[in-house]
Amino acid sequence: MKKLLISLVTLIALLAGCNQSVSQGQGDSPEDIAKVTYEWEKANFDRDYEKQQEFIYEEGSYEAYKGDEKIDSGLKYEDIRFEIYHDKELEQYYVFADFKNPNGENLVEGNILLRKKSDEWKVDTSQSLDIVREEVSGEFEQAACINCN
Q1: Is the pTM of this model over 0.85?
Q2: DSSP 66-131
Q3: Residue 21 is inside which H or E element, if any?
């Protein structure tokens, strides 16, 4: 009987822990925003269509690399400079992700808008196209600058 009680208490604690981690979703810290942005950029430069789809706000809004062979670009989190701005009114983040193209010699200046959907931060590909860096940096206070040395 004692073993059954201990097993029951352990099971309840385990289920409570799993439920809590699922309900919290992705965090709202600048580091969490940078990690989502990194995963998005990595999926793009790896030509990983399936992974890209996980990060898109509006299904079907981004079809790049569909049918292409995946590669390993070697893009690393540490190689990206993340300048993050938070629009508190609309509850969205603007991220300027700057890095050397791992598949070429050019510099990449990514402008990314992240919006929440079902407790997860997703890339709004259509709104990202309209970002003007000077306007964003003039209108919003910078929330963080990660890897900005």
Answers
A1: no
A2: TTPPP------GGG-EEEEEEETTTTEEEEEEEEE-TTSSSEEEEEEEEEEETTEEEE-HHHHTT-
A3: helix 2-24
